[in-house]
Amino acid sequence: MKRFKFSLQQVLNLKTSQKFQIENDMANLQRQKLRIEKNLNDLTQQWQTEQKALAMEQGRKIDADYRLRMGYLDFLDQQIAVENKTLLNVVKQISTTREKLAIVMQEEKVIKKLRDKRYEEHMTTEQQEEQKITDDLVNQRVVQDILKSTLHDKEE
Fold first, then answer.
1. Which CATH number applies to 9-118?
2. What is the 3-state secondary structure (H, E, C) of the chain?
3. d(CA 91, CA 38)
4. What is the mean pLDDT of the chain?
5. Is the Cβ–Cβ distance between 153 and 50 less than 8 Å?
6. Domain boundary assignment for the chain
7. Which of 5-9, 91-95, 102-106, 129-133 has the lowest mean pLDDT?
8. pLDDT for the residue 60
9. pTM over the 0.70 mark
């Protein structure tokens, strides 16, 4: 029996490797997204805390404290804006990575189907060859039996 050899096996291996790499990239991006969302949540909580403190101090009208808290709120606003932009970029990267992953998975699936089809063809060919050999052996045996019986009949 001939050994099955798939000519596109290296391409299939490459696609599998690409899929693995893209899945790793996707996992890294998801972790980055979670970290950014946590930072954003922390900044928002700090902003809310400072906003409450500022509202309490407004009645006392301490200018230095008020200006300091307003400056800190502006800083938090800037940090929140930066984190939002970063989060948006990461979400876009996740989207493009998902698209890449879908394409590579589809290509891998097509190549695997082709490999399976070729394997089935190979097995069918092998079975046909084995059947042909078996038929030839049976035919030879039948011919030998006929010859033996003919020779045996002539001798008698």
1. 1.10.287
2. CCCCCCCCHHHHHHHHHHHHHHHHHHHHHHHHHHHHHHHHHHHHHHHHHHHHHHHHHHCCCCHHHHHHHHHHHHHHHHHHHHHHHHHHHHHHHHHHHHHHHHHHHHHHHHHHHHHHHHHHHHHHHHHHHHHHHHHHHHHHHHHHHHHHHHHHHHHC
3. 15
4. 89
5. no
6. 9-118
7. 5-9
8. 61
9. no
